[in-house]
Amino acid sequence: MRVVAAFLSWAVAGAAWATDIRVLSAVALEPGLAKVAEQFRKETKNRVRVLFFAGTPQLERRLAVGEPADVLVGPAGLMNDQLRRGKLDAESHSFIGRVGIGVTVRADAPDPDIATLDRFKQSLLGADSIVYNHASTGLYLEKLFELLGIAEQLKMKTVRYVNSAQVLEHVIGGKGIEIGFGTITEIKQFEPKGLRLVGPLPEQVQNSTAYSAAVITEAPEAEVAKDFVRYIGTPAAKAFFSAAGIE
To answer: Are strands 101-106 and 178-183 parallel, antiparallel or unpaired?
Structure first.
């Protein structure tokens, strides 16, 4: 009985010590960050609740209204802006990695040739449709296609959606030669649903976004938040991010 009582006492005390922290994050980091958060919980008993948002504007709105949170994970532009405003702790900051744009097709469709920039252009011109979003990925692709001199030729067969999830669902449900675009991390998440990552954009035109994490200045659980941000920089966490396509 003493052993059981001692165990129960320890378990209750351990539960009392556990802390919950809230993280606001860009959705592009979801496949890696979710696993890092779970591993952090296993090692420290502290729980991490991550709220993922489709783009920077959504994160900015949450921050502007004072959403209670301990850690922000976002692209360099957002992080630098919040640092200038004094909203983030400059001493508790960790670089995560870069996420590039990927080319994707339906799992049973032939791979388009994207080995060189010229072959990439020819594959786009030969496709039945080109699918991408209205967010940052789509805005970049708009400019890229103009620079490549193929914007007008692609216009009539281009399909646009608000977010990447809708883009990827469209490609999965396609019948012809559809070529879709999204962040590599998001494409990898959809591969079990019937999608295939062909590869990143050709190196000469790749557009990678850098992401980092930092403790929010008014974090309710600042000490555990600092521990989590430090953990994000460990080799164990980097392995999870790398496996998810975050380099």
So the answer is: antiparallel
Tell me the domains of the chain and their CATH numbers.
Answer: 2-99+210-243 (3.40.190.10), 101-205 (3.40.190.10)
- Residue 6 pLDDT: 34
Per-residue pLDDT of 51-66, as tens digits, reads 988 778 888 999 999 8
Q: How confident is the model at residue 17 (pLDDT cuts 50, 70, 90)?
A: low
Q: Please work out, in degrees rounded to the nearest 5, the angle formed at the alpha carbon of residue 213 by the alpha carbons of 196 and 77.
A: 80
Please give the pLDDT value at position 18.
Answer: 83
Q: Which amino acid is at 40?
A: F
In terms of Cβ atoms closer than 10 Å to its own Cβ (0-12, 13-18, 19+), residue 65 is: exposed
Q: Report the alpha-carbon distance of residue 233 to residue 191 in Å, rounded.
A: 27
For the chain, what is the total number of helices (H) and then of strands (E)?
11, 10
Q: Could you tell me the pTM of the whole model?
A: 0.80
Rounded CA separation 145/128 (Å): 16
Does the CA dihedral 146-149-155-161 come out positive or negative?
Answer: negative
Cα 199 from Cα 93, distance rounded (Å): 31
Residue 84 to residues 18, 92, 225, Cα–Cα distance (Å): 32, 15, 20
Residue owning tokens 């460990």? 234
CA angle at 210 for the pair 40 and 150, rounded to the nearest 5°: 135
DSSP state of 173: T
Kindly report, residue by residue over 130-148, the tens digit of the pLDDT: 999 988 889 899 999 999 9
